[in-house]
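Record 1 of the preview.
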Amino acid sequence: MKLIDYEKINTKGFLIAAAFIVALGIGIQFKYLNEFPAFIHAWAQDDRYALAIGFLDNDFDLFHPETMIYNKQFPGWWEEAYDTTITAVDFPIHEYIVALLMKLFGTTSPWVFRLWTMICSFIGLFFLYKLSYLITEDFQKSLFVTAIAMTSPVYAYYFNGFLPGIPAFAMGVVGMWAYIKYVKQGKKKFFHLGILLMALATLMRTSFAIELIAVLGFELLRIFRKESTFADKLPTVIISFALIVAYMLWNSHLRSQYGSLFLNELMPADNVEDFRDFLNDAKNNWEYQYFQKLHYRIFEVLAGLSVIAGIIRLIMKLKNKDGKTKKNQLTIWFLPIIYLIGCLLFLIAMIRQFPNHDYYFVDTFFLPILMLYALMLSALPRIKNYVVGGISLVALGILCFFMISNVNETQVSRRWIEDGAYKTYLNFDGADQFLDSLNIPRNTKILSLYTYPQNGSFIQMKRKGFSVMWHKENIVNPALTWDFDYIVVENQVFRDTFEERKDVLGRLNRIADNGRISVCTLSDTIVCSNPEEFFAEKQ
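->
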């Protein structure tokens, strides 16, 4: 029997879905399109922003990525300075493309980076709709799954941000769509496409190896059940893993030679009690940032209804032995389950990161849970009556209204004006022009003292240097011996911490300040005993 390609006969639905995704995305994100990375996880976002700028500075050398920091977090925890700003990092193709766009538009403004990430989000969401449609074969259900994804507070926050998890997620979604299309229609080209895209997502963000392994595990089950074959899959799988391993080896070389600003080790708990504490902290911090309360309630209702629908189908099958079931449709349920098992193993291995890193959820649990939403909706009867369909459409519209209202509120609440990174951004606004006015060359090395986050101030100063975010002596004391030309410190930070770190701040000679930051040189002895003396007008 010829398989029906529902995607081809639902072109109108796809156009409506695309319009919905773009309109809603722009509606939520437009006001933040040129926002400098501050607020939650400004540190990680600044690092990625700096990578893109680094490609402009190194003539687009993809295999020697660099930021603007000479002292690296790993392995020396900022205590060791290197001769170069090259850093080990997951395959930075995302930042590389952003650098090309910056070159094209002639600006490094945040909107270039955010625009590219937003485009990636649009692509990922459109294929999430297509993936959901492959599963549900229903326009309204598929659009609803997409709306849930778009109104997840954590996803919405990074929707047009700087982290690679969003383009990697988009790549993973397209890969999953291609694989499910292969399972549904048996066209092997989609298997190859799906695996290669998942491999690329893994190169960009290692945690997406969970998706790749889950799909291969699911495919292996199909091979054991004689639903699929083995030999024709092997070349693509070998190529994919060869690329992943090759870049891992290269990244290891970069790490050994130049250090890294990016984590590359497991972070498990020491014992079961610590694991429980970390898990509770993650729950308390992010439970209603992963999904809204309404999303959880919808999930619970769908789970109950899909169980009831499954029981009814089982009873009907027992009554009618000649009845047929959609074998592939049922077996697809195993895929997100395998995926979630992999995510749980990752959670155990990296639990120390989850309480403070909400974006790990997008990298792991987000896609399989969205697939479960689609599968549960597919278990419900398709609506064929126009009246019932109209009523359901109105109901979905009301739900979407509340979800959109909530995500708009969380977008605001995540941007706290007392956030330390935001204050730093304000203090360093226009810092490049200020330093230019002092005739400080762009190739000057700056020691940015007690400034958080690390790359942010250098992006705004448009100069490279050494970052000292902490007050610990084992970090500060070595930094004072490094080969820097000037020290830059925020005026308010100087005032607030002078008594605590008089031994360091008292040695600073102020050359100039613009009311927010001061440019200084370092003296061998104490030259000021209080902030008033430091900021006094020079005679």
